[in-house]
Amino acid sequence: MQKMGIRSITLILIVLLAATSCSKNKKPTSLKPGKTSSKTGLAYNGKDGFQVKQYKALPAGPDLVYIEGGRFTMGSLEEDVMMRRDNPKRTVSIQSFYMDQTEVANVHYLEYLNAVQRDSSEEYYSRALPDTNVWFNELSFNDSYVTMYLRHPGFRLYPVVGVSWVQANDYCNWRTAAVQMANNSMGQSAGKKKGISFGKKKKAEAQAEVASAEMAPAQTIESGYVMPPYRLPTEAEFEYAAMGMIGTQYSDENQSNSRIYPWDGSTMRQPRGRKQGTMLANFKRGPGDYAGIAGKSNDGAIITQEIRSYPANDNGLYDMAGNVSEWVYDVYRPLSNSDVNDLNSFRRDGYQDQAKNYDTKNNNSLVDDKLRVYKGGSWADVAYWLSPGTRRYMDQDSATAMVGFRCAMIATGSRK
Length: 416
Hints:
single chain, four-stranded mixed sheet, 8 helices, 9 strands, 9% strand
C-alpha cells in the first residue's frame, strides 16, 4: 500500500512538472501575447502599464473570402489583339487578402443609397446615384432597363452597373463604417466570448444595437476590433484571385498548369458531369449571339444575370469572368508592367510615369491620372476579355452597363 502511495505521488509530480514545462515553453502569438513582455519582463495591462489585450480574432466581414497569397505569373496569356503591349507576363507575389465572393448587387447598392439619403445631403445623394441611362441605346429598345434594372425587385441580385470608379470607392468607405458599426454593436464582448458573428440576430434587436453603438466610444486600432477598410482590389489582386491557381502545384512548388480563364482548359463550357456542355460564364458568344437559342439558352442570360448563377472558381469566387467587368484600384499606365514592384504590385497615380509625359493637350494620348483599369469581361464581351490577364481602362467618372465592382480587404495576422 505504501509503495502504491509513493507511485501515485510520483506520477502526480511528473504530470505537474510536464504541465509547468509546457506552459513555460508556450510561445507568445499575436492573438495571445502572454501576460508579460518577452523582452522586458514587465507585466502587460497594469494600472499604468502598457495595454496589450488578448482577444479572439474577428471574422473578416460578411461575404468576404480568404485568398491565400503566393507567387503567380501576371499578364496576358492570350494574343494581344489590341496591340497595346501593355501587359506582358511577369512573376509577382501577392500577400494574402480578402475579396468579396460576388459582385455588389443592386440590393446592396440600394441599401447604401438608403443610408446616404437618410444621413447625407441631397447633393451627395445625387452624386451617389448610378447612371441608369447607361442602358439607353438609340438603336436598341433597352428603355425599360433605364427605369427598372436598378430598383425592381426582380433585379435585386443582379450586379449593379452604371457606377463610376469614384462612386465604387465611396461605397467601400460607407461599407467600412457600416460593418464597423455592426461589429461594435454585436461584438462588445468579443474578447470574452467566442468572437463576433454576423446576421444571427433578429432584425429589430440588431437595429436597436446598431443605434446604441452610435453612442459607444470609438474603438482603437490597438484594441483589435477595428476592421481594415474595404476597398477596390488592386489589378494584381483581381488577376491573382481570378486565376484561382491554388491546388494546381506539385509538392516542390512547380505548378502543373497555367490557366487562360478562371477554370481549367481552353473552352467556355463544362467539360464533364451532369452539366456537361453548359456555359461557365455569362458572355457574348459571337456577333448578335448573347445567350444561344430559346429552350437551349444554356448561359441563361441575354444581359446580366443574378450573382452566383455560374460556378465559382477554386478560390470560391463567383463571376470573376463574365457577367460584368469590374473596377480595380489601379490607375492605367501602358508601362505598368515595368514600373511596378513585384511584391503586391500596384500602380498609383502621380508617381514616376506622370500624366504630364502624355500629350493629352493635342489629343495624341488618352492617358492621365483619371484613367482606371477594369477587368474580368462582361455579358457584352467576347471570350477574349474573360481572361484575367486582359486589361482595359476608362475615366474614373465614367460608367457603363458592362462595368460593376466588388470589394477587397487586407488580411491581418496569421491563419496558421
